[in-house]
Amino acid sequence: MKKMALAILLLAGCAPEHDGTALIETANPDAVQLDGHQDGLAEKIKKEADSTESIYDTAVVKGKKELLVAYKVRHLDRFKMKDIEKDLTKRIEKITGKDVDVVVSSDYKIFLEAVRLKEDMEADLMSEKEADKRLSEIIKLKKEMT
Amino acid sequence: MDPDRYKKLASKYEAKRPVLQNCIRAFWTGGLICVIGQAVSYFFIFFFDFTEQTVGNPTVAFMVFLSMLLTGFGIYDRLGQFAGAGSAVPVTGFGNAVISAAIEHRTEGFVLGVGGNMFKLAGSVILFGVFSAFIVALIKSLF
């Protein structure tokens, strides 16, 4: 038992540096706007989502037609996930209007993919068109049920 | 002898069950199995295209398969003796129930032995699982 505890302790030291994507950590990625406009809409929406008390981390990606808001919910507030989602969607739709297809998600995978998309864009690994296509794929992933 | 008198007499010589110790063991072992399950689900989310919504199926399949392997190697039986309900209640207990019955009846042949007795224990879990799922789905569709 002691040997096992020691092994776990030693292995814990091998953990990589914080990459900001772990579930309990705050990654706080910058908002990404892929529609070519520089009106700061994505940033505005990120601020709006961040102002929610139950949410502690958000990733916003604004595509040509779709807007993705992925967020992490504080542990004890996870009991009211549906209310948080409903309220956030309402507030965001007030800002964007009805032309934009708003997709909000508390799913960790969606958050992870939104952060990966932002990082790939920063590293010039994909064009804006490719990024918009990947955004659609992420949203499709969100709609999968089984 | 009168059954009540026999019970009283027998209780004098019975070893006391360490209930608290058993509960603590079950709590920690069951919790550890759940932590492993959570780690597996994060693995699937991180490296494959599974979301929190869809990751349940592969995680359960993996955990059941893992417990089946461990039962085959004789490790899960020892864990079961140590942790009791802590190892039987999680979904891994289902894999253990299937494989241990199959191993027990292996000598009676593949069809009537393994095939006929494999779900001797797990069959009731499947039956009541399906039945309760049906009832819940019925309630959900009606209201």
From TrEMBL, chain A:
Protein name from the UniProt record: Sporulation protein
Organism: Domibacillus antri
Protein origin, superkingdom: Bacteria
Automatic annotation (TrEMBL), chain B:
Keyword Transcription attributed: no
Pfam families linked to this entry: SpoVAC_SpoVAEB
Stretches of the chain forming a coiled coil according to its record: none
Highest taxon of source: Bacteria
Keyword Amino-acid biosynthesis appears in the UniProt entry: no
Transmembrane domains' residue ranges: 26-48, 60-76, 83-103, 118-139
InterPro entries reported in the protein's UniProt record: Spore_V_AC, SpoVA
Keywords: Membrane, Transmembrane, Transmembrane helix
PANTHER family with a match to the protein in the record: STAGE V SPORULATION PROTEIN AC, STAGE V SPORULATION PROTEIN AC-RELATED
Entry protein name: Stage V sporulation protein AC
